[in-house]
Amino acid sequence: MIFWRVKPLNQILETAEKKALKRQLGPIQLTLLGIGAVIGTGIFVLTAEAAQKAGPSMMIAFVIAAVVCGLAALAYAELASMLPVSGSAYTYTYGVMGELIAWVVGWALVLEYAIGATAVTVGWSKYMNGLLNNDLFGLVAPGSLALPDWLQTGYFSGGGFNLLAFLIGLAVTWLLVIGTSKSARVNAVLVGIKIVALSAFILLAIPAVTNANLHPFMPGGWGNPIGSNGVGVLGAAASIFFAYVGFDAVSTAAEETKNPNRNIPIGLLGALLVCTVFYLLVGYGAAGSIGAQPLFGADGLPLDPGTPAMTAACVGSDALVCSGEPLAHVMRMLGHPVIGNLIGLAAVIALPSVILMMMFGQTRIFFTMSRDGLLPDAFSAVHPRFFTPHVITYVTGIVVSICGALFPVGKLADTSNAGTLLAFAMVAIGVMILRRQQPERPRPFRTPLVWIVCPLAVIGCCVLFVNLSAIAKGVFVGWAVIGLVLYRLYGYRRSQLAPPSN
Questions:
Q1: Which residues have CB under 8 Å from 474's CB, separation 6+?
Q2: Where are the membrane-spanning stretches (predicted)?
Q3: What's this model's pTM, rounded to 2 decimal places?
Q4: pLDDT at 268 (0 to 100)
Q5: What residue spans of 291-324 are helical by DSSP H?
Q6: Mean pLDDT over residues 115-122, rounded?
Q7: Domain spans in the chain, listed from the N-terminal domain onward
Q8: What value does the mean pLDDT of the chain take?
């Protein structure tokens, strides 16, 4: 059987009380944390990749991804209000489907949070290098501050060591260690900067929209619901899903939240609503103002972003799909170079908030898994002064920094999505199981139309998963196998639910 070693929900709450984190976050901070986690590399960087896969119909891709996330958010809100503890989908699954599936979900969440944070460090470095390669608003000679080419991109992107991605990862690690409330205050400022930057983009780009730039609207077609390998609207939705990843990180802060039964649902749904509105307006402005047509290969299909063929096709091209900093690029193409540079500067200043929240989520999940005995006790050590899980924060930060220095952003984002989609599907399934098994249990927030919303969430996650790149799906399977081996060698015997004889 796979539904074994189910940890009762009451026991989960009791375990959290024995080694608890300090409650210090309110509803506004949570909503801002969610917005900070969501608005980032997905919209600032991956807009170009979505355009390459779907053209102007990337706007539909944004909607599809938002709908799937919205359905999952309703399920998350119910479980988070019932279980206001750290651990997100891992904890919820443990209390419903048992330890083995919980381990698989927790292990998969490493792909969402740690690999997601890594992708954002690379996206941040693109904007930072873009500024250094220019004249910094006329203050210096163009390129005089530029790093050597081999320090601007990672080894697996054709460079050497992405120095800036490495350094920003270390900086965020230090910020997380010194305290959650301090991190939240800094994050609130960074969220404000991102909102101003996106608002400026929308105000300048939308008036420049012309119908001609939106045709053909779907040059790559819809794609195949059972797997299009990244082509068309569904392929773009599978990739741009990364633009919404992170809203569930709000639920990982449940144990550090004041009045979590009320504030967690507010943070989840509020963050998702704000971000969806901005994404649709930005996508429309980008595609309609300068065009967003993909580059095609000899087979008549859009080229795969990040491949040598795409790189070759982009040589000397000003197309949106070729830009590493698409929003700044749109502004420059529209004759607003200063605004473009300011948007680039805003991305440089604000993207660290996304890294912060993704690493925040990762450390809290490992903290909870350690508290359950599935990982070494050192991972749940709490700093005596800052009240943060400092050991696992250092470990996570070092791994994120090194991976960010070596790997490309697009493939990292797809790989991150694979873990996220599994977690979302399991949460939706968990809500349905609990409705049957424990209908009388108090639910401060109830998922509306649960027998419609949750099945649709699962179906949506499956459709997006099969439309991820083959590399992302392969990495996901390999990562799952490694996780199962580690569980059998360590977690299975050390778990708090393991029989004494083990």
A1: none
A2: 28-46, 58-79, 100-124, 155-177, 189-210, 230-254, 266-287, 338-361, 391-410, 416-435, 447-466, 472-490
A3: 0.80
A4: 76
A5: 308-313
A6: 88
A7: 18-494
A8: 82
